[in-house]
Amino acid sequence: MDCIGDNLGGGKGGLLVHDNNDFVDQMFPWFEPSTAPGKPEAMSELLARPGVADQVTKSGVRYVVWLDGSTRKTDGGGGLACGAAPGGAGCIGFGWWQKESAYAGAPSGI
């Protein structure tokens, strides 16, 4: 989310992008993971609840960008070796992984 926020906010004519965690905290409890809308279409229903639209307006947010997608580990490996001797012991190792992400977004005017 930081990458998308940086790109929307950067450059000439960039938008003021609110930090996601700050917004979720300001909107407690409506955007907590257990109560947040599961689909973009559910935003209208959420905004119709008493107090929600007023709180969004107070926060200064005009648009919510909905991101949907996933990141998955596509490959990885590594190794670890340990040894012990009189007077000491230790381990040395490494790990690597490759991830692939796919996301789609939809802006929603508030």
- What is the number of strand segments? 2
Mean pLDDT level = 81
Radius of gyration: 22 Å
Number of helices: 4
Shape: elongated
- Element pattern in H and E: HHHHEE
Structural class: alpha+beta
Instruction: Give the amount of beta strand, in percent.
Output: 35-45%
- Indicate the low-confidence ranges by residue numbers: none
First CA to last CA: what distance? 19 Å
Helix content: 25-40%
Biggest sheet architecture:
2 strands, antiparallel
Query: How do the strands of the widest beta sheet line up side by side?
Result: 1-2
What does this structure look like?
- It is a single chain.
- The chain is an alpha+beta fold.
- The chain has a domain at 2-71 and 104-109.
- Helix content is 25%, strand content 41%.
- It contains 4 helices and 2 strands; from the N terminus they run H-H-H-H-E-E.
- The radius of gyration is 22 Å and the shape is elongated.
